[in-house]
Each structure stands twice: as structure tokens, then as C-alpha cells.
Specification:
Isopropylmalate Dehydrogenase, binds 3-isopropylmalic acid, homoisocitrate dehydrogenase activity (chains A, B), globular, homodimer, about 375 residues, alpha/beta
Chain lengths: ~375, ~375
């Protein structure tokens, strides 16, 4: 145990299909080849709407403390947020991101032949600021002239905008490096590293204006400029449109919290299914993998949920914990499974169950 | 002149291709068959970034006053908002919506064979609240612990939510009536009138919670319930995803200002081009037609901008001014042009110029 590195991983299945995909993620970690020299230990943790109904708390202190004190990383499934505002209930994933200061939400959207809804090859990453914007959840309600008025604060800070821009820039450069290695034998033209800053500063000149300017300033620093990083901007409504009109064009897209949330769900449609799209909530020295899909109560318990988003989130988590080689193994195994296209879950038009897909990926690791 | 009705229309081309499409809109109005008994008079009005650069004001008082005092309706082209916040400049269309209390922004997205990016027939309307949300533009910036913090207010009121829900419900019922007439001879199953309420109340329980609840309450009134209106809800991130996964499913989608802005641009990608998507900014007794596209500086002056979004906006304006028959003529002429597919602008893969498309639509009126 002393020779190889042991990573302690918190497992938070949450609700619905979270309970099916998180065990799948654990199996992937346990099945990584021994040659990588990685060991894992696990701790089961609670959060979610079921937890709230049982205990009155959606995110127990024990979950937060265990993650903070014991864990290197974590996997989070999904939670069923009630759409009817429920007294005392508040989304545990939003709280977790803030409590652990997981300031970046990294959401790669990549198409693999045979699964994609769009004909173009898509390989982009949405880097979403994860701690502020409307997600500060400072709201108030009052009466005025017989009307009811509710207000929420959208808060943007220079510090948070700067660190998310730095993260976006670093990811763009890292991706360019990986592309260069992978394609070193190919004659194909390399895509240049690029960050697209998305905002709505034509309406929100101060808040989104601050985000926009801070991102440009940050990405103009010598470390990025000298690496030939291209920096563009796109107003968020046009961004959503162009995402569908020219998806192959984009590399890294950085945005404030809410736009990032919306862009990543929209981008999932580009690659046919939310069941394919992973995310990592990343802080300094901690990464929490989380599939972008929800708890899908309609298919929970049927054993047909797509484990790919979670498996890719395992890869992302490993990547941000500095285990690039292990991550690459995971990604390649998933791509192999999708490329062969023999074992696909129903969201991708196939007939396979969760277990079969996991088994197939494990064989390819 | 006393026998037939004369409608006075303000023309606000704005910047860029706004100057090409607004004259096209005027020509359509002038070319409507005399048998409809409608006459039009026009007044040219200024607004936009060019106006701002010339006069220091983006929306001159004269424009607002003329619209208020003299006009029945108006056509607005597009403005080039500078993305770099520019002192003293503020979007004239956002201001106009508020000053004239054009509280609903109605954006139909309809596919016509041959032009659509998606195989499904799409026929939905996004009904966007047009006066509040983050568009109140109440922002402030301050320093705190060496950081810069900017805040914006997102404001939702019960009154505005209720009237936009009413508008959405009415539009859904009107559409169902039109479908019933058009398809009375067909055996095809009629789509039921439906409103999908979109929000993010799982995070913004007070603001979006108020919007959500008010919409449900409003649409539960006997006038809607007895007409068998179906009411559903969809969290806005899922809404964006589902819009692409099952676009044919949706009928009327109602949302707060910002989500409506984003959804309508995304939906434009469903039908291949923003150049096809119209909108009407509607208040009590006034309608302002506005293509959803921007000023497109890259193609301004080339004579190749797609006039269809503006021509359809002319139809919408007429519809909301109570001229349903004239509106139907405009829509049919546009559909005829698109169905034939001989004269299409480059955004739709064709080679025709703006003038040719306008000429073709005029011939079909
Ligand atoms: C469940 C919800 C609070 C969450 C969010 O809005 O961040 C989800 O949509 C996501 O993207 O992880
Ligand atoms: C130009 C801009 C201020 C405007 C908006 O955000 O409303 C535009 O995107 C629109 O949808 O009409």
C-alpha cells in the first residue's frame, strides 16, 4: 500500500439513476490496470432529495466534512430537485460546489462516430464558473402597490472571473498539446487553441462587462499570449445559435455560471444524448466528477441508464487529480465501446442495459 | 381614404442589414392586395449605434414620441450593440420595449420543407416576457477586500408574469383554432393546445418560483382550463436540450425575458437560419415587428441579407393589430417562396439577393 498511490474517493449517488451510474463509476476505478500503480478506497456518502425527506437536510454535514478531510476526489450522481420550491430544501450539488470551492465546472462535449446527432466532428469544452452569478441564491420577495415582487442578485467578481479564465486558458493549451501528440503522425491541420468568452455585456454592461473584460485581460497574459492562444468572444444568445450552426469551430468556451449551465445542456443535444456528457467540478487539489444528466425518475430502477457520462466523469476526475494516463485509458475504452456501437443504451437507440455497457468498457480498459 | 382603414407604421431600420430588411418590410405592406381594404402610411425613425455616434443618443425622444402619438405599429431592423461597454450607450430596442410597455415578445419558429436543419416539422412559439428579469438593467459595481464586485438585479413580478402567461395561453388557443380550420379536411391528429412554462426554480426558488407559480395559476383559470389547454413545465436547461431532442413536441413555450432571449436564438438553429425567425414586441394596442437576427455587419451592404425574418415580422405585426387575414397572406407568400426553394439567400444555401426574394414574395401575395 505504501508503494502505490491510494486515492480516497467519496461516492454520492443521490437520487434516481444516480444509484445506478455511481456504482458503475466505482467499478471502472476498481478495474483500472494495476500497471498504472493506482489504488482506490471508497467512502459512501449521502445527499439528495431522498436524504432530505428522510433527515430534513439535503446535504448532511458528514458528507461535506468527509470530503474535505478524507477524500482526494468524489463522484456525484444526480439529485431530484423538486420543481415546486420546498421549504428547507436547497440543491446539494450547488451547495457542495460552493462549500468545497469547486470553482470550475468543466464539461467536454465530444462526438464519436455513430452516436452523434450532428454530422460534424465535435470536440469542445464548456468551462463554467461554478460559485457565483445567480447561483449565489440571494433572493428576496416583497409586496409593492398590490403586486408581488421577487428579486435575485447576479454577482460577478473579478477574482472568480480571473480564475475561471485561467482555467479555460490552461485547458485550451493542454488540449492543444494532447492533439499535437495524438496527431503527430497525421497530416491533418491542427486546430489552434482557442477560448471563446461568452457573456451578455450588451445588456449587462457591469456584471457581464466585468466578466468579459477580466477574461480578456487574464488571457492576454504572456503565458497565454506567447503560447499563441486565440481569444474570441460571442454574445451568449448568438453563442447558442452558432453552437448548432458551426459546432466544429469551437474549442474551449468559458462563461459565467448560468450561461455555462444552459450551454452545456444545449451542447449535449449536439452529441445526441445527455447520457454521454460528463463534468468535473474542480477546485484547488480536489475534483468531483458528475454526469451532466439528471436523476431521470422515469427510467430509474430499470437498469437501462447510460453509464457513459459517469464513466467519462471518472476520466475527468482522474485528469484533474493529475492522473492523465489513467484518464486516457478511460476515455479510450469509452470511445472504443461507442465506436463499435454494439452495446448502446436506449437513449442512443440501442438495447443494452447499464451493466452490459459497463462490462464492455471494463474489458477495454 | 375614409372608407378603408389606414395604419400608420413607424420604420426604424437601425444599423447594418436593418437598412436592407426594413425597406423590404415596407414593400410587403405596400404590395398587399387592395381587396383587404388596408392602407398604410409610414414615418421614418432613427435609433441605433450609428444614431448614437452621430447624436450621442441611441434612442432619440422623437422616435419614442412619434411611435406613442402617431403610430399603430412599427418595424424595427437591428442595432449593432458594441460589445465593449460604451459610456452613455444602452440598447435602444430594450429601452423601446420598456418605454412603450411592449410586454410580450412573441417568436414563432416554424420549419418549411427544404429549409430546415432538423427533419421534424417544427411549429412552436416562444413567448418571452419583455420588460423585466435581468433586463431591468439595475447594476452596481464596488470594491471589496481588493476585489471588484458587480451585481445586477433579476426582478420578477406577479403582474408581469401573469400577463405574459395570459398572452401565452391566448396564443396557444388561437393557434389551435387556426390548426383546426386549416386541417378540418385532413384526418391527421390535431396537436393539442399546450403551454410549456420554462424557468429555473430549482435554483431561483423565489424569482423563478414566482414566475412558475403565477403562470400555473393564470393558466388554471376557467377560460383556459375549459378550453382544454395543456400546461406543462420544463427547467430551462432541460428545455434547451429537449428543444433539440424533440422539437416537434412543443407548441407555446413561455419564459422570463433572458431565457426567452436564449431559447429563441437556439430555436432559430432548428430551422436552419436566424434569417427566418421573426418576432413581435406586443403591448396593449401596439405591435412592433422585429427580425430576431442582428445587424450582421459582415454582410451589410452586400444586398444578400435574408428578408424573410422581417417579412414574417410584418405578418406578426399585422396579426397583433387585428389584421389576421392580411397576416395569413404574408405567411402563405413566404411559405410558397421557401417551399419552391428557387430563390433563397446564401444563409439558406441559395444564391439570391434580398431584392429577388422580396420580389418573389410580393408576386405571391
Ligand atoms: C440540478 C441543478 C441545480 C444543476 C445546476 O443548475 O447547476 C444542474 O442543472 C447542473 O447543471 O449540474
Ligand atoms: C440586442 C439585444 C439587446 C436583444 C436582447 O437581448 O433582447 C436581442 O438579442 C434580441 O433578442 O432582441
Amino acid at each position: 500500500m505504501a508503494a502505490s498511490r491510494t486515492l480516497r474517493i467519496g461516492l454520492i449517488p443521490g437520487d434516481g439513476i444516480g444509484k445506478e451510474v455511481i456504482p458503475a463509476g466505482r467499478r471502472i476505478l476498481e478495474s483500472l490496470p494495476a500497471s498504472l500503480g493506482l489504488k482506490f478506497s471508497f467512502v459512501d456518502l449521502e445527499a439528495g432529495f431522498e436524504t432530505f425527506q428522510k433527515t430534513g437536510v439535503a446535504l448532511p454535514d458528514r458528507t461535506v466534512e468527509t470530503l474535505q478531510k478524507e477524500c482526494d476526489g468524489a463522484l456525484f450522481g444526480a439529485v431530484s430537485s423538486p420543481t415546486t420550491p420546498t421549504k428547507g430544501y436547497s440543491s446539494p450539488i450547488v451547495a457542495l460546489r460552493k462549500k468545497l470551492d469547486l470553482y470550475a465546472n468543466v464539461r467536454p462535449v465530444k462526438s464519436v462516430a455513430g452516436t452523434r446527432a450532428f454530422p460534424d466532428p465535435i470536440d469542445l469544452v464548456i468551462v463554467r464558473e461554478n460559485t457565483e452569478d445567480l447561483y449565489v441564491k440571494e433572493e428576496r420577495t416583497y409586496e409593492q402597490d398590490g403586486d408581488i415582487v421577487a428579486e435575485a442578485i447576479k454577482r460577478i467578481t473579478r477574482s472568480a472571473s480571473s480564475r475561471i479564465a485561467t482555467m479555460a486558458g490552461e485547458i485550451a493549451l493542454r488540449r492543444a498539446k494532447i492533439r499535437a501528440v495524438e496527431k503527430s503522425t497525421s497530416t491533418e491541420q491542427q486546430k489552434q487553441a482557442m477560448v471563446t468568452i461568452t457573456h451578455k455585456s450588451n445588456v449587462l454592461s457591469q456584471t457581464d462587462g466585468l466578466f468579459r473584460k477580466t477574461c480578456f485581460d487574464t488571457l492576454a497574459q504572456p503565458r497565454f499570449a506567447s503560447a499563441n492562444l486565440k481569444v474570441e468572444e460571442q454574445i451568449v444568445d448568438s453563442m447558442l445559435y452558432k453552437l448548432f450552426i458551426q459546432p466544429a469551430y469551437y474549442d474551449v468556451v468559458v462563461g459565467p455560471n448560468l450561461y455555462g449551465d444552459l450551454l452545456s445542456d444545449a451542447a449535449a443535444a449536439l452529441v445526441a444524448s445527455l447520457g454521454l456528457v460528463p463534468s468535473a467540478n474542480v477546485g484547488d487539489g480536489f475534483a468531483l466528477g458528475e454526469p451532466c444528466h439528471g436523476s431521470a425518475p422515469d427510467i430509474a430502477g430499470l437498469g437501462i441508464s447510460n453509464p457513459i457520462a459517469t464513466i467519462r466523469s471518472v476520466g475527468l476526475m482522474l485528469e484533474f487529480l493529475g492522473q492523465g494516463e489513467a484518464a486516457a485509458r478511460v476515455y479510450q475504452a469509452v470511445d472504443g465501446c461507442l465506436l463499435e456501437g454494439r452495446l448502446l443504451t436506449p437513449d442512443l437507440g440501442g438495447k443494452a442495459g447499464t451493466e452490459e455497457v459497463v462490462g464492455d468498457v471494463v474489458r477495454r480498459l
